[in-house]
Write a structure and sequence with these properties.
The complex is a heterodimer. Chain A is α+β, with helices and mostly antiparallel strands. Chain A has 5 helices and 3 strands. Chain A has a 3-stranded mixed β-sheet. By secondary structure, chain B is α/β, with parallel strands linked by helices. Chain B is built from 18 helices and 19 strands. The chains are: A alpha+beta, B alpha/beta. At the A-B interface, helix 4 and helix 5 of A face helix 1 and helix 4 of B. Chain A: Its main location: nucleus.
Chain lengths: 104, 587
């Protein structure tokens, strides 16, 4: 994987998630950060820090990104193999706030 | 908080007419309840878009909360826009109960759209009012909320919109509690038997009202005087109150910002209409079923500036009027009568000029169910901007149609149950903008259809009772844009359906009452995959023919009454091949 094809998402407690850019772009907010013509530091370094998102939640969000890509792929080939995305009840509220922020 | 950073736009205002109902109205003639409508449309959306669009993480979280709703005691720590979305989902899926509502205490919600929500009563009002100054709109329509329930809303002084339609337990006393809600811009309490003229006195303090809906309130005669100071008012609905008279029109004369006025099925006569002459912004006037005569049309067209008729031509009374409904009134061919002291014996053609000058912007005119004949249509000749014309159930015949020949803006004409014959239809052949034509009349035959072949833009053609035969269907081939077609005169056989099978844009097809149609018909139309509604009742269709419907994946409504088909057969087809089918007969 080439470096420019990935992005680094950093949680509040400093944990780094390196994921495909394509996956990260599922989030409208991250997409805007990475593609806006301005001089966002994020655009240049391919790094986004989320001081308000915990590691647990950010991991869950990354899982969602990949699940979402897989879902779309399965729809496009009509395989009918869409899986469910599991959400732990105790994470729901915090995850929702992050999802709202990320436009995801 | 993160959520607060990107607060979403308030896109959900209290809405007195459920949008879903509107959409479904076209396909289902029987009214369905709001909730049925919702669940139907959602199902369709899930099937149509849900398959192609991935649910957002936000949506997944909200569904998860709905599943575990019992585990949550409060959402007040959430940003408002998130708790609002959870609330909306619970209402939408009908999972909200008095208990789960408790979790929304002090959530600063803005919109509580609880219209026709099952179980809503006074005990819910405490949590509703805890939204306090955040609350902008509330819909309590169809609930059991009483006068004392409304007390709670006193402190929600930022309320802009409030509906309590069909709320039988709210009376004048309840209205008193909302007298301080002076930010209200929309207020609606349709079908209320208890509210009287005295109750309406609270309205005089609601000076920011833009929209007031008092439809079907039979006790309000005399109460409209309290509207006098509401000069911002843009829309007033006092339809079907059965008590509104000419005297009630007088206080409306100063409401010069009115754009929409609905007074249908009231006792307002020509005299009452004279009070409306100063409403220069009025664009919609609905007087269906009022005892007004042709003189009223004259009065609406021209403000009587003086005795000099010619000069008065240039001061139209209602210059902004776009929609005029005079259906089921007392219109006849007689020209003018006595109007408020001005005795006018107008010549037919003068009246015609007056109409064309005074109402020249008119887009929609409904003259249905009146005793008017061809002579009356002379008055319409100058209405160059007219788009929709309803003449159903009048005595209008073929001769009158020549007056419409020049109205080239016409998009829709309804000539059902008129005395128009085949020979008259030629005069419509130049109306190239027509997309909708209703010719539901027994005397219309194949010959009439033959003269309409130039109307290639037609999207809706209603020949319900017309005597169309197989040979007439040859002309249908010209109407490639047809979305809906009804031919139910009994004269069609499978051979005629061959000419329908290539009208691939059809979404609504009604071939009922043609009792010679067989399974072959279903085979022929199996390629019309856009069909949403199909009716072939009273025919020789059998269970064996149903297989041909498998390809009609968009079908929502299917009527095969009085055929050799059982409900069981259709249910089977529904489960295997027609996932969108929601209404069928036999049932």
């Amino acid at each position: 994987m080439k470096k420019e094809d990935t992005v680094k998402l950093i949680s509040a407690d400093g944990f780094e998630f390196v994921i495909d850019k394509k996956a990260a772009m599922v989030s409208q907010t991250i997409r805007n950060m990475l593609t806006s013509p301005g001089s966002f530091a994020e655009t240049q370094h391919g790094e986004v820090t989320f001081p308000e998102i915990s590691t647990t939640i950010l991991e869950k969000i990354c899982q969602y990104f990949y699940w979402s890509l897989q879902y779309a792929r399965s729809i496009s080939v009509g395989s009918g193999k869409e899986t469910e995305f599991h959400i732990e009840p105790e994470l729901t509220l915090e995850l929702m706030m992050a999802a709202n922020y990320l436009h995801t | 908080m993160m959520g607060g950073a990107c607060s979403r736009k308030r896109d959900q205002q209290v809405n007195e007419d459920s949008g879903n109902r509107g959409i479904y109205g076209r396909y289902c003639k029987s009214g369905s309840s709001k909730w049925l409508g919702n669940s139907i449309s959602r199902l369709a959306v899930d099937n149509k878009q849900g398959k192609t669009k991935c649910p957002s993480l936000m949506e997944l979280c909200i569904y998860k909360i709905r599943e575990d709703i019992d585990k949550y005691s409060s959402f007040s720590m959430l940003p408002r826009d998130i708790s609002q979305q959870i609330f909306n989902e619970l209402v939408y899926s009908q999972c909200l109960t008095e208990v789960s509502l408790g979790a929304f205490r002090d959530c600063a919600l803005q919109d509580l759209d609880l219209g026709e929500y099952p179980g809503l009563e006074d005990s819910w009002m405490d949590v509703i009012s805890s939204q306090e100054l955040s609350l902008l709109s509330v819909d309590l329509s169809g609930s059991d909320v009483t006068d004392s329930g409304l007390i709670h809303l006193k402190n929600c002084t930022n309320l802009q919109a409030m509906n309590f339609n069909y709320s039988d337990q709210i009376s004048d006393h309840g209205l008193e509690h909302i007298s301080g809600l002076s930010n209200l811009a929309t207020l609606s309490f349709r079908r209320n038997n208890q509210i009287t003229a005295q109750g309406l006195s609270v309205l005089s303090g609601l000076v920011n009202l833009l929209k007031l809906d008092l439809e079907r309130c039979p006790g309000i005669h005399g109460g409209l005087v309290h509207l006098k100071g509401l000069t911002k008012l843009e829309s007033l609905n006092i339809k079907c109150c059965n008590c509104i008279t000419d005297a009630d029109m007088k206080p409306l004369s100063g409401l010069t910002n009115l754009k929409e006025l609905q007074i249908s099925s009231s006792k307002v006569s020509d005299y009452g209409v004279t009070f409306l002459k100063g409403l220069h912004k009025l664009s919609l006037l609905n007087m269906e079923g009022c005892p007004v005569t042709a003189a009223c049309l004259d009065c609406l067209a021209v403000e009587m500036c003086g005795v000099d008729l010619i000069s008065s031509l240039f001061c139209p009374a209602l210059p902004a009027l776009l929609y005029l409904n005079l259906s089921r009134c007392n219109l006849s061919d007689d020209g003018c009568e006595k109007i408020s002291g001005n005795t006018l014996i107008a010549q037919s053609n003068l009246l015609s000029v007056m109409c064309s000058v005074g109402l020249r912007k008119l887009k929609v005119l409904n003259l249905g169910f009146n005793d008017i004949t061809d002579a009356y249509l002379v008055h319409l000749r100058g209405l160059q901007r007219l788009r929709c014309l309803e003449l159903s159930d009048t005595e209008v015949g073929s001769n009158g149609l020549r007056h419409l020949a020049g109205l080239t803006s016409l998009v829709s004409i309804n000539l059902s149950f008129t005395v128009v014959t085949d020979s008259g239809l030629k005069k419509l052949s130049g109306l190239a903008s027509l997309t909708s034509l209703n010719l539901d009349a027994r005397q219309i035959t194949d010959a009439g259809l033959a003269s309409l072949t130039s109307l290639t833009g037609l999207m809706h053609l209603d020949l319900f009772g017309a005597r169309i035969t197989d040979s007439g269907t040859n002309y249908l081939k010209n109407f490639k844009n047809l979305r809906s077609l009804e031919i139910c005169g009994g004269g069609l056989t499978d051979a005629g359906v061959k000419n329908i099978k290539d009208l691939s844009s059809l979404t609504v097809l009604n071939l009922s009452q043609n009792n010679n149609l067989t399974d072959k018909t279903l085979e022929l139309i199996s390629g019309l995959t856009q069909l949403v509604s199909l009716n072939v009742s009273n025919s020789r269709i059998t269970t064996a023919g149903l297989q041909h419907l498998r390809s009609l994946k968009n079908l929502k409504s299917l009527n095969l009454d009085s055929c050799k088909v059982t409900a069981y057969d259709i249910e089977k087809l529904q489960s295997t091949d027609l996932p969108n089918l929601v209404s069928f007969r036999p049932e």
